[in-house]
Design a protein that fits this description.
One of its GO terms (biological process) is iron coordination entity transport. By secondary structure, this protein is of the alpha/beta class. The protein is 34% helix and 14% strand.
């Protein structure tokens, strides 16, 4: 069994003198070329958890969950606080593309506060936000109610952790009164995908499944709207139609199947996955039902335990896509060559 193993140690852009202090206000990230607010406040945004009433242009934005800080920065607004990423971020909790963009613009890094396993609400309160962005997050109703009393809070429009990437950008653009700029960011990302797909015509008609395992015996698959699958679809591959027939697991954009159902992927051309580390990969791949998945056996299998790479390919943001798209396409090209 061979696989396209992505190990990219050292690719993160870290800094020994990174600051953990808050910026005093939301400053423009000039490298992104964002415009100014476009239509005026007040702005009202509905979500599954409640309504955000934004009375005026925010000056102290806080982001919770994944990807929202990237979009805010791309729109010219550097948050005063962001949820730390202890898994895919650097030692200070910043994802490398976010750190690099903020530092390149000469802006101060936001405070990184804990979001998992439990949101540090006290840290959010201390930041004195006037807008909280959490459209791609898992905040529960109780936390939303507290946060929305503190500042207008934009939560997810459907299920937790299930907001499509372009909807996330649109919601943030609406909240920051930069809807036209947000639309341009979406167009730019789609353009990057179109170009990459055109450079890899061999991806057309190739089916894929992005699977994951938490422990021996478990198996799940990400559905089409989940950012990991959406990223691969953007490159021109087609999600295996059998996946859409599986019931969604509540609170996720995935389906938990159990390893006994691994034969669902017998006809899948390319399988994607990720692991916490090399030991977990070896443990999972030693399970016969997993090892016998045809794509795994023949090597049309893209797998990584590089945490920054895995995180970047799990997001579709204006900062993460340019950071990773060319490398991802190259690994997929190698996997497709095994068919």
């Amino acid at each position: 069994m061979t696989s396209i193993l992505v190990v990219l140690g050292g690719t993160g852009c870290t800094s020994d003198d990174a600051s953990g202090e808050a910026a005093t206000d939301n400053t423009a990230a000039e490298t992104q070329g964002a415009g100014q607010p476009q239509s005026g406040y007040p702005i009202t945004i509905e979500s599954t958890l409640g309504t955000a009433e934004i009375p005026a242009a925010p000056e102290r934005v806080v982001t919770i969950g994944q990807g929202s800080a990237d979009t805010a920065v791309a729109l010219g607004v550097v948050p005063v606080g962001v949820e730390a990423d202890p898994w895919g971020g650097d030692e200070d909790g910043y994802q490398p593309w976010l750190r690099a963009t903020i530092e390149a613009a000469g802006d101060e890094l936001p405070v990184a506060f804990a979001g998992q396993p439990e949101l540090d609400i006290d840290a959010v309160v201390a930041l004195e936000p006037d807008l909280i962005l959490a459209p791609q997050s898992g905040i529960p109703q109780a936390d939303f109610d507290i946060l929305n009393e503190l500042a207008p809070t934009v939560a997810y429009p459907g299920q937790a952790w299930s907001t499509p990437w372009d909807t996330q950008i649109e919601l943030i653009g609406q909240a920051l009164d930069r809807a036209d700029d947000a639309a341009a960011l979406i167009e730019d990302i789609n353009g990057e995908f179109t170009q990459a797909a055109a450079e890899h015509p061999e991806f057309e008609d190739i089916t894929f499944a992005y699977i994951y395992t938490g422990e021996p015996g478990s198996l799940g698959v990400f559905q089409a709207d989940e950012p990991r699958s959406a990223f691969i679809s953007g490159l021109g591959l087609t999600i295996d139609p059998a996946i859409a027939e599986q019931p969604m697991t509540e609170g996720t954009a995935s389906s938990v199947l159990g390893l006994e159902n691994a034969d669902l992927f017998d006809e899948t051309d390319v399988v994607f996955s990720w692991f916490n580390d090399e030991n977990q990969q070896a443990e999972i791949e030693a399970q016969p039902l997993y090892a016998q998945i045809p794509a795994v056996e023949r090597g049309s299998y893209v797998v990584s335990y590089d945490r920054q790479f895995v995180t970047a390919t799990s997001l579709l943001t204006p900062l993460s896509v340019p950071w990773v798209i060319d490398r991802y396409a190259a690994y997929i090209e190698e996997a497709v060559s095994k068919l």
